[in-house]
């Protein structure tokens, strides 16, 4: 799918969740946050008809902004944008995703996400784009502050180096975030 399709989908999701501003729930409305964690980018494939498998580990720091609304008594849906910096490789990752989760005990949320991500690579390397998937847990600390733990997986588009040489890229992150509700 093209980036334009993902962006249109994100704006549609935001349009559906913006009415949450008028709601009065701990998981509804606009929010922003900061996140930090660890991650890994894997690349594997063939080069000069030889198999290879490499990985780079890094620290990640980022910001996020989103909007959520209540879909039913226990189901929360929303959309989120994030921008992240990878410390050891000086790369930037941008993401846009739709989130759906189940609220329990009035203070806890288990959620999943699906979206689009773009990795802006440094040092002349090709930029990567692809799908992102994630699962996480969020807990309400106070009226305006939540904490979040999350795992995300990225499946980037394959890069064809030549007719016989293809590289597959993927990535993983584990992060913690502080969420501030507006």
Structural features, described:
The structure is a single chain. This protein has 1 helix and 9 strands. It is mainly β. An 8-stranded antiparallel β-barrel has the order 1-2-3-4-5-6-7-9. The radius of gyration is 18 Å and the shape is elongated. The protein has one domain: Porin (Beta Barrel). Helices cover 8% and strands 67% of the residues. Strand 8 and strand 9 form a beta hairpin.
Number of helices: 1
How many structurally independent domains? 1
Percent helix:
under 10%
Number of strands: 9
**Low-confidence residue ranges:** 17-24
User: Using only CA atoms, what is the Rg?
Assistant: 18 Å
Query: Strand arrangement, largest sheet?
Result: 1-2-3-4-5-6-7-9
CATH top level assignment: Mainly Beta
* Main pleated sheet: 8 strands, antiparallel, barrel
Helix and strand pattern: HEEEEEEEEE
Straight-line distance between termini: 33 Å
Rounded mean pLDDT is 84
Structural class of the secondary structure composition? Answer: mainly beta
Shape-level CATH architecture? Beta Barrel
